[in-house]
Every structure is written in C-alpha cells, then in structure tokens.
Amino acid sequence: MSLVEEYEEGEYERAPKRLKTAEVEEGEDLEEGEDSDSASTGLLGDEEDVAGPGGEKRAHWSTSKYGSARRDNGDDAHRIAPSPVVHVRGLCESVVEADLVEALEKFGTICYVMMMPFKRQALVEFEGVESADKCVACGASEAVYIAGQQAFFNYSTSKRITRPTNADNPNSGNKVLLLSIQNPLYPITTDVLYTVCNPIGNVLRIVIFKRNGIQAMVEFESVQSAQKSKAALNGADIYAGCCTLKIEYARPTRLNVIRNDNDSWDYTKPYLVRRERGKGRHRQAILGEHPSSYSDNGYGTHCPLLPLPSNNRYKVSSQDVPDVVAYPLPQSSAYMPHSSSSVAMVSGLHPANMNCTRIFNLFCLYGNIEKVKFMKSVPGTALVEMGEEYAVDRAITHLNSIKLFGKRLNVCVSKQHAVIPSQVFELEDGTSSYKDFAMTRNNRFTSAGQASKNIIQPPSCVLHFYNVPPCVTQEELLRLCTDHDVPGFVKFKVFDAKPSSKTISGLLEFDTKTHAVEVLTVLNHYQIRIPNGSNPYTLKLCFSTSSHL
C-alpha cells in the first residue's frame, strides 16, 4: 500500500467529510441569494445581460424590530430566528478570512469563520447572539465594507459552524491544517504548498491526497503558526483566478511521512528520498537527467502573485512575514509535475440512464475525453480516460459527490494509466460499454484558442446554451426536455444577437442544480435538425456563472 492510499483509507480521510454539515445546513438559505450582488463574465459573454448590483434579481435583507432578518418584500414567512452564526454575502473575490475578522470583530468576539470562495460568501460564528444581532442590524442600517467592498448580512439557519475538531479552542494543540484546493487548473505539489505556507509559519510536514479532489494536510511548528496561516490564506487563490484555498483545522495533530516527493515531504528529515524496492543502485538512464530537473523545482522562476493581508491582522512583526508571497509560476504542461494518472474512475452511475456518451457530455466540460469504458465486474462504474492529468483533477473537484438520476457520483483517480477496450458488453440501453472519443469534434480543449473560451465552472442550476438555430423557440426546447424525460427549465433568456448571426445563445434556469446536471448529461451535443437544412446544429450546454436569472 502506498503512502497516499494509507492517508486516504485511514484517519486522514475522515477529516474532510466532517466539513460538509455546515454548508448543507446553509444550502437552502443560499439558494436564492448566492452571488446575487454582482455579475461575473461567463462563457461567450453570457453574463453581460445578467442583473448586477441593484438589479431586480438581487435578494435584499433587512432586520425587523424583533431582531430577526426578513425579505424586503415583506415576506414574513421567510423570517430567520437570531443565531450566533451570521451568513455574509457579496464578498469580493480576493477576500480572505483575516479580512472578515478585521471588519467584524468590532461587533464581538469571533469564534470561527468558514469561507465559501466560489459563492463569494462566508459563515461567521460569534461568541454570542448579541454580537450577531449588532452585525446584522448594522449591515441593515448602514454599509459595512469588507476588503473595500460592501457586504450583506443575515442570520444563518445554523446555530453553530461544524468543525472537524475543537478548532475554536486556542489551547487545543492542533497545529495541522486541512487545505482543500478548489478549481485546481495547475498542479499542486509539496513545493507549491511549502512556498505558500512557510513564509507565515514554519512548516514541518506536508501530505497531499487526491481521492476527493485535491486536498492536503500541512503541519506547522506551533498552533500559533497554524492559526496565522489559516487567517491569512483561507479563501485566497494560489494562482490568479484558480487553485482557491479552503482551510479548516484537521483532526490529526501530527503527520507521518515516509518519503519526500511531490505528494509528501518531511522538512525535518531531508534524507527521506524515494528508493527503488529491491535495488541497491539506480538503473542507468539513457539520456541522463530530464532538463526540468536542473531547476530547483521544475516550475522555473518564481513570481509574486498574491499580496498577504497586512501584518496587524494576524499579529506578527514585519520581519516575520514578507509583504508578498512569491508563488511558483506555472509553465507548459510538459514540465509540470502532475497526478499519477489521466484516468478517472466514476462509480454510482445509474445503470439504466447512463452510457458512454452521457458520461462524455458531462466530463467534457473539464477536459478532452479520450475513451470511456464501463466495468463489467463492477456494475455502475466506468473508467474515463482524459487528455491530461490536470483534467482529471478538475473533474474530481467539480463532479465528485454530485447527485445524478437519484444516485451520488464518486469520482477519483484511477490506478489505471489507460483505458483498454477489453470485455466489451451491452449496456441496459443497448449501447456499447466502450467508446472512443479521441477524434470527436465535441471535445472542447483541442487547441489553446478553443480551451481559452471554456470557463471551468462547478455545476449550477443555470445552464448556458449556444449553437442553436434562431428558429428554435422556448416551447421547442421545453418539448425537447419532455421528449427525453428530463426536467424542464423554469426560466428562459436569449441573448441579443446580430441580424446576420446563424445561431443564438442564452440561459436556462432549473429548479435545482441536480435538474440542470441531468439535462446537460442527456441533451448536451443533441443534434437539432431544421426543415430544408443540410447539416444539423449541435446543441452545446455548459454550466453558467449565474446563480439565477
């Protein structure tokens, strides 16, 4: 058993699972308000027509004379009882935990902060309800700015933010942080994390594991160093616009590292190098060292990307922490360290509703698909060979644990390095259990120009559609959903197009995220034929950056 497998299957795996509770509890509260305070640019400019600040679509909150939050439209049925946990919306993209603490500690002692970077939201738990009352009341009567941008406040439906350990007690002795890297467009290695974390506090050990997305545990020299690092880095991007850090305290208090490589490192034992089993010496290399090994880390030169919060936010002197952390600069993929396989293993697939084509329709949003094969020995499980290892990382980050046709998907890195078309059989819908997609024109990352048009986006309840003939109406799209036995959309919007345009595009909003995922899985790349048309139009779908229309 490898080191990474030991961490995945042992006590290290249980830590991230404990983090879901608070976000699930807050889910209904976020449905109508998330990301409503600003509009961001989507694929092919789909967000230009979406209401921004002050638009009619934004949800406004105020505080009643009884101290509970309600909608401005007077809907008292949605009133939320006071809670020591405050839900913060409208945060800027660059905000980190220290920014919230600096802006909100005037209302009272803050026990814990949970960042939700992609939603631009956070949960802040105060020591008492009185402090939360002051925060919500102040936000309703006057503008409260966090990192230079006005934020909006409401009571959370949770009475306490769930922690994986007794993290709010400074004497708990926990000096290990759990880092979840969201939207990992570039590889994450021990060198990268050490460069990010060590300027704030002395790092002793790092372990990276990739079963449920990209996660890592970082052990610091002291609890104080871990606290400073969490405050300074929670919610920050390692690289501009991607590799976002979500940080919690881990359950273990010490990491055990048995070798030093890209996935684990003990900085107190530099001699832990990987050795060939049963070999007394290294095999002779025909071409010697790879050229990338001549540099310190294979990333080339370092560049400053992310300024740290000001020193007074986490109480360190100016000589302890530099003003800017120098992060490694991503180079071409040929010289980047990467995960061990470009094959993803997907389980939890509905046996009647899923086939190779539908897997392609969903996974192609995160990278090119080479081959898909269902496993005969493991029903409901398939192997997906993607164009590169980083595409697998992106698919795991965004698709692991989503619900699809009543089942929850599990997406992880496979031990296989390629998909071999062996034991081909017939699926329940009559299609083949194996399909090669290497030459299909529906892959969306075949060139740099094509790839640059794709915004890597997690599943949402709004789909962006494009490449649709102008003659197709809203009713025809609804009929298409009905004919394929998938949920229909509840809102429809078409973007203005030039009179000479041969296609139209727009947005479709569904009741739930699950409905949107099912429609995309079934109808993405559907061939739309029009009367007297020579060639069909290929319907293209992707997840929008909008949360509502």
From TrEMBL:
<dbReference type="Pfam" id="PF22976">
    <property type="entry name" value="RRM_10"/>
</dbReference>
<feature type="domain" description="RRM">
    <location>
        <begin position="342"/>
        <end position="416"/>
    </location>
</feature>
<dbReference type="GO" id="GO:0006397">
    <property type="term" value="P:mRNA processing"/>
</dbReference>
<dbReference type="InterPro" id="IPR006536">
    <property type="entry name" value="HnRNP-L/PTB"/>
</dbReference>
<protein>
    <recommendedName>
        <fullName>RRM domain-containing protein</fullName>
    </recommendedName>
</protein>
<dbReference type="InterPro" id="IPR034985">
    <property type="entry name" value="hnRPLL_RRM1"/>
</dbReference>
<feature type="domain" description="RRM">
    <location>
        <begin position="174"/>
        <end position="252"/>
    </location>
</feature>
<dbReference type="GO" id="GO:0005634">
    <property type="term" value="C:nucleus"/>
</dbReference>
<keyword id="KW-0677">Repeat</keyword>
<feature type="domain" description="RRM">
    <location>
        <begin position="84"/>
        <end position="158"/>
    </location>
</feature>
<feature type="compositionally biased region" description="Acidic residues">
    <location>
        <begin position="1"/>
        <end position="11"/>
    </location>
</feature>
<dbReference type="Pfam" id="PF11835">
    <property type="entry name" value="RRM_8"/>
</dbReference>
<feature type="compositionally biased region" description="Basic and acidic residues">
    <location>
        <begin position="69"/>
        <end position="78"/>
    </location>
</feature>
<keyword id="KW-1017">Isopeptide bond</keyword>
<dbReference type="GO" id="GO:0003723">
    <property type="term" value="F:RNA binding"/>
</dbReference>
<keyword id="KW-0832">Ubl conjugation</keyword>
<dbReference type="Pfam" id="PF13893">
    <property type="entry name" value="RRM_5"/>
</dbReference>
<dbReference type="InterPro" id="IPR012677">
    <property type="entry name" value="Nucleotide-bd_a/b_plait_sf"/>
</dbReference>
<dbReference type="InterPro" id="IPR021790">
    <property type="entry name" value="PTBP1-like_RRM2"/>
</dbReference>
<dbReference type="InterPro" id="IPR035979">
    <property type="entry name" value="RBD_domain_sf"/>
</dbReference>
<dbReference type="GO" id="GO:1990904">
    <property type="term" value="C:ribonucleoprotein complex"/>
</dbReference>
<dbReference type="InterPro" id="IPR000504">
    <property type="entry name" value="RRM_dom"/>
</dbReference>
<keyword id="KW-0597">Phosphoprotein</keyword>
<dbReference type="InterPro" id="IPR055204">
    <property type="entry name" value="HNRNPL_RRM"/>
</dbReference>
<feature type="region of interest" description="Disordered">
    <location>
        <begin position="1"/>
        <end position="78"/>
    </location>
</feature>
<dbReference type="Pfam" id="PF00076">
    <property type="entry name" value="RRM_1"/>
</dbReference>
<keyword id="KW-0694">RNA-binding</keyword>
<keyword id="KW-0687">Ribonucleoprotein</keyword>
<feature type="compositionally biased region" description="Acidic residues">
    <location>
        <begin position="24"/>
        <end position="37"/>
    </location>
</feature>
<feature type="compositionally biased region" description="Basic and acidic residues">
    <location>
        <begin position="12"/>
        <end position="23"/>
    </location>
</feature>
